[in-house]
Amino acid sequence: MKMPQNRPVVTGPQTGHVVLVGAGPGAADLLTLRAARAIAAADVIVHDGLVGADVMAMTPATARLISVAKRRDRHTMQQADIGLLLVAEAQAGHKVVRLKGGDPFIFGRGGEEVEACRAAGVRVDVIPGVSSALGAAAAAQMPLTHRDHASIVSFVAGECRGLAGQNWVGLAGKGRTLVIYMGVTGSDQIAEKLMADGLAPDTPVAIVERATLPDMRVLRSLLADLGGTVARQAVKSPALIIVGDVAALGNAAAITAIAKVDPCPVC
């Protein structure tokens, strides 16, 4: 019987294995010790485009590097094919590191890759990483939860299809923090949706670009001017959007020094 092309082939016991490694938000010294050891021992490293250059510089010269970088309108490799690649390399007896920005299980599609390995009988382990949201908030000294401001934090993907049809009611507002991944391109539509769902136009927002890296920027605005701030400041991915009262917190002097831009005119 012919196997479907998008399903891994189950074989006997394998000497190779796969490790999903969270590379963190960018800075190499935020890698865990376990992640650094896995990278150093890898035969093959399958990496995303958002993994920091300093992290990539830690890859051993003997390892074979395979880029599966994804952008909004261009994927080097489709997700199903990435799963097949991981399985094939492990079945060939290699120690495979799947190196992913942030944490593998927070908008990293790590769950799908674990499932592909399990379906093929390939051993798979997961090493967590500092998520982009946690790294960005810490670098900007902007607490996602705070006893006086927010006791709930939610993470959403701003690049999902059918954004207007999604129910974000209650994810942001009094006592809540909303962190939006992959929201730069659709920042105008995101602001419109949140306001349509009842969020006040003067809700504080912060945009953290290239979190934890030397050229990191932190920009503050209000929800109504989110898209305008992104456009005026030419914000590029990777960047996170933080919505809620905590976006007005943080070390103002440090943020100004990091951002190297004039304060937002509407703040």
Q: Which series of helices and strands comes N to C?
A: EHEHEEEHEHEHEEHEEHEH
Shape: elongated
Sheet with the most strands, sense and barrel status: 5 strands, parallel
Let me know the CATH homologous superfamily of the largest domain.
Tetrapyrrole methylase, C-terminal domain
CATH topology descriptor of the largest domain: Methyltransferase, Cobalt-precorrin-4 Transmethylase, Domain 2
- Number of distinct beta strands: 12
What is the CATH-assigned architecture of the largest domain? 2-Layer Sandwich
Strand order of the largest sheet: 3-2-6-1-7
CA gyration radius, whole angstroms = 20 Å
Helices, by number, come to 8
Topology (elements, then pairings):
Blueprint: E1 17-22, H1 33-41, E2 44-47, H2 53-56, E3 64-67, E4 70-71, E5 74-75, H3 79-91, E6 95-100, H4 110-119, E7 124-127, H5 132-139, E8 150-157, E9 175-181, H6 187-196, E10 204-209, E11 217-222, H7 226-232, E12 239-243, H8 252-259
Parallel strand pairs: 1-6, 1-7, 2-3, 2-6, 8-9
Antiparallel strand pairs: 4-5, 9-12, 10-11, 10-12
Helix pairs in contact: 3-4, 6-7
What's this, in brief?
This protein has helices spanning 33-41, 53-56, 79-91, 110-119, 132-139, 187-196, 226-232, 252-259; strands at residues 17-22, 44-47, 64-67, 70-71, 74-75, 95-100, 124-127, 150-157, 175-181, 204-209, 217-222, 239-243.
